[in-house]
Design goal:
Blueprint lengths: L3 H51 L13 H44 L18 H28 L5 H5 L1 H12 L3 H16 L1
Helix pairs in contact: 1-2, 1-3, 1-5, 1-6, 2-3, 3-5, 3-6
Length: about 200
């Protein structure tokens, strides 16, 4: 049987971890969703850049503006680089934060005995087993980790030199968001957490 002191530490660790999960999860979902319009804009600019490359300005009424093609190219490149900077420097770290926050809460919990750890007395029904909540935190951390790696791989692979790759980036992000929908298990953990936090 777990000593009362260890049970108290586990209860406190669970309360802390579940509160962090509750605070972080909606922001994580919002960040995933916020990246899609940025990537769609990026794809549109890349499409415009590709179209501009195909235009023979010397054969159009714009031929008098000899610097126009270069200025247009630089403007489109600057627009693509600005969008990539926002995605990489703001959105990507925001996707990493929940993984690190939940992971930090798991370290002391696992040190108490891992996901099989359970208190001397299980919470009374209908509250879930404490071990299930630890597993729920592990599932959430794993989901955040996988989605972050997929997002990082995509965003770091994009370049203004590869306009074709940027045009299909929104579809690639939609697939990442579909992977993120596996967070339904996280929603279940959050529902259980509501009862646990009220009971303890």
């Amino acid at each position: 049987m777990m000593e009362a002191e260890e049970a108290a530490r586990l209860r406190g660790g669970l309360r802390s971890g579940l509160r962090v999960l509750r605070e972080q999860h909606q922001g994580w979902r919002d960040t995933l969703a916020a990246c899609l319009p940025l990537l769609r804009t990026l794809g549109n600019v890349a499409l415009q850049a590709e179209a501009a490359r195909r235009v023979s300005f010397g054969e159009t009424p714009l031929r008098a503006f000899t610097r126009l093609p270069e200025r247009l190219r630089l403007k489109q490149r600057a627009g693509m680089e600005a969008l990539l900077a926002e995605l990489r420097q703001e959105k990507l770290p925001a996707l990493l934060e929940p993984r690190e926050a939940v992971g930090a809460c798991l370290v002391p919990l696992l040190a108490l005995g891992g996901p099989d750890a359970a208190p001397a007395q299980q919470p009374r029904a209908p509250f879930p087993a404490w071990a299930d909540l630890v597993v729920g935190l592990l599932d959430a951390e794993a989901l955040y980790h996988v989605v972050y790696l997929e997002a990082q791989l995509l965003l770091l692979s994009l370049s203004y030199r590869d306009v074709a790759g940027m045009q299909v980036a929104p579809q690639a992000w939609e697939r990442i968001m579909q992977h993120g929908q596996r967070g339904n298990r996280v929603e279940e953990t959050l529902l259980k957490a509501t009862f646990f936090l009220e009971d303890t």
